[in-house]
Amino acid sequence: DVKVTQSSRYLVKRTGEKVFLECVQDMDHENMFWYRQDPGLGLRLIYFSYDVKMKEKGDIPEGYSVSREKKERFSLILESASTNQTSMYLCASSRQGNYNQPQHFGDGTRLSIL
Amino acid sequence: GQNIDQPTEMTATEGAIVQINCTYQTSGFNGLFWYQQHAGEAPTFLSYNVLDGLEEKGRFSSFLSRSKGYSYLLLKELQMKDSASYLCAALDSNYQLIWGAGTKLIIKP
User: Choosing a second label site near A104 at 20 to 30 A (CA), which of A73, A74, A90, B54?
Assistant: First the structure.
Protein backbone atom coordinates (compact mmCIF):
# COMPACT_ATOMS: atom_id res chain seq x y z
CA ASP A 1 0.00 0.00 0.00
CA VAL A 2 1.05 3.57 -0.69
CA LYS A 3 2.07 5.42 2.40
CA VAL A 4 2.08 9.20 2.49
CA THR A 5 3.34 10.52 5.80
CA GLN A 6 2.98 14.05 7.02
CA SER A 7 5.32 15.10 9.79
CA SER A 8 2.74 16.51 12.20
CA ARG A 9 -0.97 15.89 12.79
CA TYR A 10 -1.40 19.10 14.78
CA LEU A 11 0.71 22.24 14.80
CA VAL A 12 0.31 25.59 16.54
CA LYS A 13 2.42 28.54 15.43
CA ARG A 14 2.44 32.28 15.88
CA THR A 15 1.79 35.02 13.34
CA GLY A 16 4.94 35.93 11.44
CA GLU A 17 6.73 32.63 12.06
CA LYS A 18 8.22 30.61 9.21
CA VAL A 19 6.47 27.25 9.18
CA PHE A 20 7.62 24.02 7.53
CA LEU A 21 5.25 21.16 6.72
CA GLU A 22 6.92 17.97 5.58
CA CYS A 23 5.55 15.14 3.47
CA VAL A 24 7.18 11.85 2.53
CA GLN A 25 5.86 9.11 0.24
CA ASP A 26 7.27 5.61 -0.08
CA MET A 27 5.99 4.49 -3.49
CA ASP A 28 8.41 6.28 -5.81
CA HIS A 29 5.63 8.50 -7.16
CA GLU A 30 6.65 11.27 -9.53
CA ASN A 31 3.82 13.67 -8.68
CA MET A 32 3.32 15.34 -5.34
CA PHE A 33 0.74 17.90 -4.27
CA TRP A 34 -0.09 20.24 -1.40
CA TYR A 35 -3.72 21.17 -0.69
CA ARG A 36 -5.55 23.03 1.99
CA GLN A 37 -9.00 21.92 3.11
CA ASP A 38 -11.41 24.37 4.73
CA PRO A 39 -15.02 23.76 5.82
CA GLY A 40 -17.52 24.30 3.02
CA LEU A 41 -14.82 24.51 0.36
CA GLY A 42 -13.34 21.88 -1.89
CA LEU A 43 -9.70 20.96 -1.68
CA ARG A 44 -7.67 23.85 -3.00
CA LEU A 45 -4.33 23.20 -4.67
CA ILE A 46 -1.43 25.26 -3.36
CA TYR A 47 1.54 23.82 -5.27
CA PHE A 48 2.44 20.65 -7.07
CA SER A 49 5.56 19.01 -8.42
CA TYR A 50 6.11 16.57 -11.27
CA ASP A 51 9.74 15.86 -10.56
CA VAL A 52 12.63 16.62 -8.27
CA LYS A 53 13.42 20.36 -8.12
CA MET A 54 10.32 21.12 -10.22
CA LYS A 55 7.37 23.05 -8.86
CA GLU A 56 4.21 24.52 -10.29
CA LYS A 57 1.79 26.99 -8.74
CA GLY A 58 -1.68 25.80 -8.01
CA ASP A 59 -4.77 27.90 -7.42
CA ILE A 60 -3.71 29.59 -4.18
CA PRO A 61 0.11 29.84 -3.99
CA GLU A 62 0.30 33.28 -2.35
CA GLY A 63 2.07 33.18 0.98
CA TYR A 64 3.47 29.70 0.39
CA SER A 65 6.53 28.15 -1.18
CA VAL A 66 7.64 24.55 -1.69
CA SER A 67 10.78 22.51 -1.95
CA ARG A 68 11.41 19.15 -3.60
CA GLU A 69 15.05 18.19 -3.25
CA LYS A 70 14.39 14.44 -3.19
CA LYS A 71 11.78 12.44 -5.07
CA GLU A 72 10.11 11.13 -1.94
CA ARG A 73 9.91 14.41 -0.02
CA PHE A 74 7.81 17.53 -0.70
CA SER A 75 7.91 20.40 1.78
CA LEU A 76 5.44 23.26 2.13
CA ILE A 77 6.74 26.50 3.61
CA LEU A 78 4.69 29.33 5.03
CA GLU A 79 7.11 32.22 4.69
CA SER A 80 5.44 34.42 7.33
CA ALA A 81 2.43 32.73 8.84
CA SER A 82 -0.82 34.63 9.08
CA THR A 83 -4.10 33.78 10.82
CA ASN A 84 -5.86 33.20 7.48
CA GLN A 85 -3.51 30.28 6.90
CA THR A 86 -5.11 28.37 9.75
CA SER A 87 -6.37 25.27 7.98
CA MET A 88 -6.04 21.54 7.35
CA TYR A 89 -3.14 20.85 4.99
CA LEU A 90 -3.13 17.68 2.93
CA CYS A 91 -0.25 16.23 0.98
CA ALA A 92 -0.83 13.77 -1.87
CA SER A 93 1.20 11.79 -4.37
CA SER A 94 0.43 9.97 -7.60
CA ARG A 95 2.15 8.01 -10.33
CA GLN A 96 2.75 9.67 -13.68
CA GLY A 97 1.42 8.11 -16.82
CA ASN A 98 -2.27 7.49 -17.37
CA TYR A 99 -4.36 10.37 -16.13
CA ASN A 100 -6.62 8.00 -14.23
CA GLN A 101 -3.96 7.48 -11.59
CA PRO A 102 -5.54 8.35 -8.24
CA GLN A 103 -3.89 10.62 -5.75
CA HIS A 104 -2.92 9.08 -2.41
CA PHE A 105 -3.23 11.34 0.59
CA GLY A 106 -1.56 11.75 3.93
CA ASP A 107 -3.63 12.11 7.11
CA GLY A 108 -3.23 15.87 7.07
CA THR A 109 -1.73 18.52 9.34
CA ARG A 110 -4.16 20.71 11.22
CA LEU A 111 -2.32 24.01 11.50
CA SER A 112 -3.41 26.81 13.80
CA ILE A 113 -1.83 30.25 13.52
CA LEU A 114 -2.32 32.39 16.62
CA GLY B 1 -15.43 29.34 -14.35
CA GLN B 2 -14.96 25.78 -13.21
CA ASN B 3 -17.34 24.41 -10.63
CA ILE B 4 -18.35 21.22 -8.87
CA ASP B 5 -21.66 20.98 -7.02
CA GLN B 6 -22.66 18.29 -4.55
CA PRO B 7 -25.06 18.32 -1.59
CA THR B 8 -23.57 19.43 1.71
CA GLU B 9 -25.10 16.71 3.85
CA MET B 10 -27.28 13.62 3.49
CA THR B 11 -28.81 11.22 5.99
CA ALA B 12 -29.64 7.57 5.36
CA THR B 13 -30.55 4.47 7.32
CA GLU B 14 -28.35 1.45 7.92
CA GLY B 15 -29.06 -1.24 5.34
CA ALA B 16 -30.62 1.19 2.85
CA ILE B 17 -29.35 2.64 -0.45
CA VAL B 18 -28.19 6.21 -0.95
CA GLN B 19 -27.25 8.15 -4.08
CA ILE B 20 -24.88 11.11 -3.85
CA ASN B 21 -25.04 13.41 -6.86
CA CYS B 22 -22.33 15.58 -8.37
CA THR B 23 -22.60 18.05 -11.22
CA TYR B 24 -19.54 19.60 -12.83
CA GLN B 25 -18.61 22.41 -15.16
CA THR B 26 -15.01 22.30 -16.28
CA SER B 27 -12.79 23.48 -19.11
CA GLY B 28 -12.53 20.19 -20.89
CA PHE B 29 -13.02 16.87 -19.13
CA ASN B 30 -10.73 13.92 -18.56
CA GLY B 31 -12.65 11.93 -16.03
CA LEU B 32 -14.23 12.08 -12.60
CA PHE B 33 -13.03 10.72 -9.28
CA TRP B 34 -14.86 9.86 -6.08
CA TYR B 35 -13.05 9.77 -2.74
CA GLN B 36 -14.17 8.84 0.75
CA GLN B 37 -12.92 10.79 3.76
CA HIS B 38 -13.64 9.75 7.32
CA ALA B 39 -13.47 12.53 9.89
CA GLY B 40 -9.86 13.35 10.73
CA GLU B 41 -8.48 10.98 8.13
CA ALA B 42 -7.01 11.07 4.63
CA PRO B 43 -9.27 10.95 1.58
CA THR B 44 -9.14 7.51 -0.02
CA PHE B 45 -9.82 6.69 -3.66
CA LEU B 46 -13.13 5.01 -4.50
CA SER B 47 -13.66 5.24 -8.25
CA TYR B 48 -12.75 6.83 -11.55
CA ASN B 49 -15.10 7.23 -14.52
CA VAL B 50 -14.29 8.65 -17.92
CA LEU B 51 -16.85 6.86 -20.10
CA ASP B 52 -20.61 7.15 -19.79
CA GLY B 53 -22.29 4.50 -17.75
CA LEU B 54 -22.29 2.69 -14.46
CA GLU B 55 -19.26 1.03 -12.91
CA GLU B 56 -19.88 -1.30 -10.01
CA LYS B 57 -17.36 -2.11 -7.32
CA GLY B 58 -18.90 -4.20 -4.57
CA ARG B 59 -21.42 -2.18 -2.56
CA PHE B 60 -20.33 1.03 -4.28
CA SER B 61 -21.17 2.04 -7.86
CA SER B 62 -20.37 5.20 -9.77
CA PHE B 63 -22.24 6.62 -12.75
CA LEU B 64 -21.21 9.22 -15.31
CA SER B 65 -23.09 11.17 -17.98
CA ARG B 66 -20.66 13.37 -19.88
CA SER B 67 -23.38 15.07 -21.91
CA LYS B 68 -25.14 16.18 -18.72
CA GLY B 69 -22.03 16.96 -16.70
CA TYR B 70 -23.35 14.65 -14.02
CA SER B 71 -22.15 11.81 -11.85
CA TYR B 72 -23.46 9.94 -8.87
CA LEU B 73 -22.09 7.57 -6.29
CA LEU B 74 -24.46 4.81 -5.23
CA LEU B 75 -23.93 3.08 -1.91
CA LYS B 76 -25.91 -0.10 -1.21
CA GLU B 77 -26.50 -2.03 2.02
CA LEU B 78 -25.31 0.90 4.05
CA GLN B 79 -23.18 0.20 7.09
CA MET B 80 -22.37 2.50 9.98
CA LYS B 81 -18.76 2.64 8.80
CA ASP B 82 -19.97 4.35 5.60
CA SER B 83 -20.54 7.52 7.63
CA ALA B 84 -18.00 9.83 6.03
CA SER B 85 -17.62 12.68 3.58
CA TYR B 86 -17.67 11.82 -0.11
CA LEU B 87 -15.63 14.04 -2.39
CA CYS B 88 -16.26 14.44 -6.11
CA ALA B 89 -13.42 15.74 -8.32
CA ALA B 90 -13.31 16.33 -12.07
CA LEU B 91 -10.13 16.28 -14.16
CA ASP B 92 -10.04 19.27 -16.53
CA SER B 93 -8.33 19.72 -19.89
CA ASN B 94 -5.03 20.55 -18.14
CA TYR B 95 -5.32 17.36 -16.09
CA GLN B 96 -5.89 19.39 -12.94
CA LEU B 97 -8.41 18.13 -10.39
CA ILE B 98 -11.32 20.41 -9.58
CA TRP B 99 -12.78 19.39 -6.21
CA GLY B 100 -16.28 19.64 -4.81
CA ALA B 101 -16.76 20.65 -1.18
CA GLY B 102 -17.82 17.14 -0.27
CA THR B 103 -21.04 15.52 0.92
CA LYS B 104 -21.22 14.50 4.56
CA LEU B 105 -23.16 11.25 4.80
CA ILE B 106 -24.74 10.42 8.15
CA ILE B 107 -25.91 6.84 8.67
CA LYS B 108 -28.56 6.22 11.33
CA PRO B 109 -29.30 2.81 12.87
Answer: B54
